């Protein structure tokens, strides 16, 4: 049961969460507005600046998760930090996105700023929706009647956003929604169509993965132009006892501080089948394996030796906890607070004063 000390801690963490949302969002939006002319005059410089600013935003998000232990194992994906890479991750709760950001943030380079996120359209209306809109992440709409048009729109976006903006990593949650909301429908679909019936994940939706691979996946195709995706990371995110945490609860600190685990398995994109039926079988098999691995984890509290010792294309990493760089986090907050102060003094305050003067003259 929470005591007085806990409520003080919750309050302080909430204040940090709220205030950092204000000054971090203002910092990103204002700087990107000031550098907007470069989007036409010098687009490469503009998107390098945006990459840095997005890494700052992710650094801010990482600070909200302080105190929650996260361990990772499997392939050493830090070797791919500067390689063109598609990351797929199972989806269970609102905490999944900041946790993936944390895992990628600790890898550095392209895994931080040069990443394109493909997510459900509802996230457009969250606190960081405006950031994703400015940086041209892709918001996907579900529905059979718009599936084809959405995939065509995604293919165009991969050319205009991924290729032209110098992005290297792409992140997708292929299940298309949280496990608790999609499991029943997925199992009914699987039973009806003679597919595997899964318990700890749902059958992945192929549309976005197929669109990305067919447009920018290795090997080269007429549509992929340059810098095709070379690697696919299958990331498995595990919460203790199959009880996913939620983002707000972690930010405020009232969620239990149980160990969270990532497991990674890397594949070469050129070895993945591109025809939809074969790609469907390949990706479904990955999720069957993921479901078995999660079943074993929930029983034993860790990934089995079989999962950790299976044949790999990358060297395996020694299982380890992710460490928060306190100094870097302080610098991130200092940069955002300093930017907020400068923008207020030299932009917002003078503009507000000018507007109020005009109002007084008119009325």
From TrEMBL:
Keywords, alphabetical: Acyltransferase, Membrane, Transferase, Transmembrane, Transmembrane helix
Family: Belongs to the 1-acyl-sn-glycerol-3-phosphate acyltransferase family.
Spans through the membrane: 14-38, 346-362
Domain of life: Eukaryota
InterPro entries: Acyltransf_C, Plipid/glycerol_acylTrfase
Gene Ontology molecular function, alphabetical: acyltransferase activity
Any one of the GO CC terms: endoplasmic reticulum
Pfam families assigned: Acyltransf_C, Acyltransferase
GO BP field: phosphatidylinositol acyl-chain remodeling
Residue ranges occupied by any Phospholipid/glycerol acyltransferase domain in the UniProt entry: 85-210
Protein name (Swiss-Prot/TrEMBL): Phospholipid/glycerol acyltransferase domain-containing protein
């Amino acid at each position: 049961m929470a005591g007085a000390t806990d409520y003080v801690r919750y309050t302080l963490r909430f204040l940090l969460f709220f205030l950092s949302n204000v000054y971090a969002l203002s910092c990103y939006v204002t700087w990107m507005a000031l550098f907007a002319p470069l989007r036409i005059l010098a687009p490469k410089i503009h998107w390098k600046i945006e990459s840095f600013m997005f890494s700052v935003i992710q650094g801010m998000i990482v600070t909200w998760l302080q105190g929650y232990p996260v361990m990772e194992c499997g392939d050493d994906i830090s070797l791919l930090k500067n390689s063109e890479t598609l990351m797929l991750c199972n989806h269970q709760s609102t905490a999944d996105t900041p946790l993936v950001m944390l895992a990628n943030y600790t890898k550095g380079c392209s895994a931080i700023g040069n990443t394109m996120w493909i997510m459900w359209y509802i996230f457009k209306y969250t606190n960081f929706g405006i950031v994703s809109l400015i940086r041209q992440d892709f918001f996907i709409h579900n529905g059979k009647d718009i599936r084809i048009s959405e995939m065509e729109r995604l293919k165009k976006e991969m050319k205009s956003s991924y290729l032209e903006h110098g992005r290297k990593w792409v992140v997708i949650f292929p299940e298309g929604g949280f496990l608790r909301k999609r499991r029943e429908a997925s199992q009914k679909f699987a039973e009806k169509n003679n597919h595997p019936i899964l318990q700890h994940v749902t059958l992945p939706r192929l549309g976005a993965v197929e669109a990305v691979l067919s447009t920018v996946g290795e090997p080269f195709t007429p549509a992929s132009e340059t810098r095709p995706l070379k690697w696919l990371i299958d990331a498995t995110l595990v919460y203790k006892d199959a009880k996913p945490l939620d983002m707000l609860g972690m930010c405020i600190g009232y969620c239990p501080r149980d160990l969270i685990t990532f497991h990674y398995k890397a594949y070469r994109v050129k070895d993945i089948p591109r025809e939809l039926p074969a790609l469907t079988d390949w990706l479904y098999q990955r999720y069957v394996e993921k479901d078995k691995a999660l079943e074993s984890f929930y029983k034993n509290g860790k990934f089995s030796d079989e999962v950790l010792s299976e044949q790999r294309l990358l060297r395996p990493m020694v299982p380890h906890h992710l460490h928060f760089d306190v100094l870097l986090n302080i610098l991130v907050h200092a940069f955002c607070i300093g930017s907020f102060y400068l923008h207020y003094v030299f932009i917002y305050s003078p503009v507000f004063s000018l507007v109020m003067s005009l109002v007084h003259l008119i009325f």
